[in-house]
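Severity: low
Component: inverse-folding endpoint
Summary: output formatting inconsistent between runs
Steps to reproduce: submit the following structure tokens with default settings.
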């Protein structure tokens, strides 16, 4: 079920400005493989290939994956059209995980 909380998306904007957000399929996949990603976000409007690639990587490396509502991820971070993002481990990542688990 996609995340709908506005506070979650506001925190994503803060994470982007703080520089702890990795964007794009290849960058996110690299962050997962390097075990730097504490939280991976996937837009529900992403292609099936992107979804499978990231789900498999998260399952293999043990990263937490959440799906967002269509187009909300890109608008929350100020880059419409982005389909995936990874949040680096740290306090912002912990806060985002807490907000996402309340959904």
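Observed output (run 2 of 3):
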């Amino acid at each position: 079920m996609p995340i709908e909380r506005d506070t979650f998306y506001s925190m994503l904007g803060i994470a982007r400005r703080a520089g702890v957000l990795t964007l794009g399929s290849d960058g996110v996949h690299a962050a997962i493989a390097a075990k730097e990603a504490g939280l991976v976000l996937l837009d529900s409007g992403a292609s099936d290939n992107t979804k499978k690639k990231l789900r498999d990587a998260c399952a293999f490396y043990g990263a937490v994956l959440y799906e967002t509502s269509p187009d909300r991820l890109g608008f929350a971070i100020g880059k419409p059209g982005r389909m995936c993002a990874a949040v680096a481990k740290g306090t912002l990542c912990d806060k985002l995980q807490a907000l996402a688990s309340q959904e």
